[in-house]
Each structure stands twice: as structure tokens, then as C-alpha cells.
């Protein structure tokens, strides 16, 4: 007897739905690992109660920084550009109104105004910073993770001879006299304050806790237009020198970057700068004053060993303003398509509320 093959009518097939809430938890967590845009993460958790229960904010995959558009005075909205999603994200943040925002950072921006504070635009957490008796301080650098780590922020007095260091986690101030009177770009990294001496181009490293300092000689004499950044990258301290690229066409000048790694054999005060052509799977994001390092994830399509940097309209190099990326391996720079021509700084978005004790 010949077998008869049966099937469900097409109309019945159309009526069969999929209950997405029945997906196993382990599969949901595998899907979550592929979500590298913070908004996709939020949408994922909003699907249903089971999907939300299967994840927590601490499961958020590592994020690429957003570029903050220069903030308009009086505006209660902040505009960010996401490299990953190629979208502009607008966030209502009334606490940022009439304030000058400074980064780059993980989660928090420094909001210079009344009051001075650290501000997370996504969670609306705000950490007020009271300068006390320190008259007219201005921020020169902040650690890459001012709330999540135990590092310092550095404020200078107008005479550039006195500095105050603030540790947001413990709300502690530390006042010191600087070992030099003329400083450029600086960074607080792992309890050390790194400064470039303009006269010698050497690096002066100041131990904030004990007040001592030492000098690391510069590997080469710099041009007056060179800019120096100090960035912690995957546990290493980098010295990044941004220079005008003399090999680029005169009609379209651009920048090149020489990167040095702090080589320490024994004590840190015996360290020296060693040039490197690779930072591995790290990506550097620089604004006009400071920088941060992010680990590249293969699933995002962004490769390591690159520098992303901002060129402002009044840049002395006369490079077309906007966003650029520099390939450390081959020394080539190219412009990145970006809707902002007045990008200001970087923010790594973070949904975790991590206010230190003593703050609301």
C-alpha cells in the first residue's frame, strides 16, 4: 500500500506563532553577548519579564565610546554619535544645562558649572564636587573611570604652581605643590600624575600619595606643535605624540602618531619610554586634551591598533574638521563618516549606578 504524505495547510501554518518567551536562558545569554549597542541591550530587556530576568545591567557587553557633540549653552539635551550603530542618540539631561562638559571617560562626564559635578547622562546620577577653599580651580585631567576606580582627578590653580587631587570614591582632596610651573597635557593613572615638561620634553611623574616625583627622559626632542597624551591601555602606560604628518600632501595635511610604552625594569622611577608599532587589540580614542583605551571586540567589526581622534574647526594643522582614524600598523590616516563636525569628547555609555558613599 502506498504511503500518503500529509502536511498542515498553508493557512494553518500562518496561524502558528512563536512564543519568544520560551527561549532557554542559556540561548538568551548567548544572544546578549552579541549586543554591543547599549540601546539594543535596553530593547532586549524590555521584550518580556523572562528576558529581563535572564539578564542584569552588569551583563552589559563592553561598549564603544560615543562622541559627544559640542554642547549648546542653555540646552537640556545632549547629542551623541554612536560609531557602532551609526546613529545619533539624543538624551534629555537637564543637569547639564549651561555647563561645560569634559571627558573622555567611562560613564561620567565632568560638568563644569554650578555645581561642579560628575554626571552620568544615562542614569542621571550626579556626584557633586565641592572645591572648598581652593579658589578658581580648573580640571586638567580625570581618570578614565572616575567612579568605578579609585583614581584621582587633577585640578590646577590659576598660577599653575599648586594642584589639588580629588578621589571621587572616597570624596578626598589632596593639595600639593607641583615640581614645575609650566605644564601641558596631563593624566592621573594608577595614583601617578604624568606631566610633560615644556622646556625639556621630559615626563615628570608625581606620586600623589607620598608627594615624591621623578623624571623619565623624552626619547626625542619634540616640535612646538606636537601634542602629548598619557593613556593607560590594558594595564600599560602609553605616551602618545600627535604630530603634523610631513609626508602627507601639502594640500591635505594630516596627523601621525608616535606611540611609546613605559618599560619598567624594577622600580617605576627607573622606567623609560620605548617606541612601539602595536597596541594589540586596543583602540585609542583621543579628544583635545586626554584619551581612553578600549578593547576591540571581533563581533563589533572594529579592529584594534587604531587611534580615533577629533579635529576641530580651529585646528592649527588646517585639516578638515571632523573625526579621523589612524592605523598604527601602516601609519595611514583617513576621515571617518560622522554627522558631527564639532565633536567634543568621548563617553563610554554605562547604565550601572555606582555612586560613592556620601553622595545622592
TrEMBL record:
This is F-box family protein. Pfam families: Beta-prop_KIB1-4 (PF03478), F-box (PF00646). InterPro entries: F-box-like_dom_sf, F-box_dom, KIB1-4_b-propeller. Residues 20-56 form the F-box domain. Residues 80-319 form the KIB1-4 beta-propeller domain. It comes from the Eukaryota. SUPFAM superfamilies: F-box domain.
